[in-house]
Fold:
Amino acid sequence: MEFPKFLLGDNTDYPTAIFVVHTEFPRFIINLENDEVEWLEEFSKEDEKELEEEAENLIVAATAFYDREVSRYED
Structure:
């Protein structure tokens, strides 16, 4: 089964949270309410350096995905 690169997540236990799930490596879930990120991968020391460089781009892309999805519902 193929998944989109990003998915929106919702949970009634967290009514104000806005979860975006990144399904490709490195997989993560970000809560846009507070920018908390949970990585779903294990990283080596070498990976961590590369991840630091890429993390900002991935978070910006996740936020842009959310903004795009919300704008589609507002139209």
In short: The mean pLDDT is 92. Residues 6-74 form one domain. Residues 32 and 43 are 23 Å apart (CA to CA).
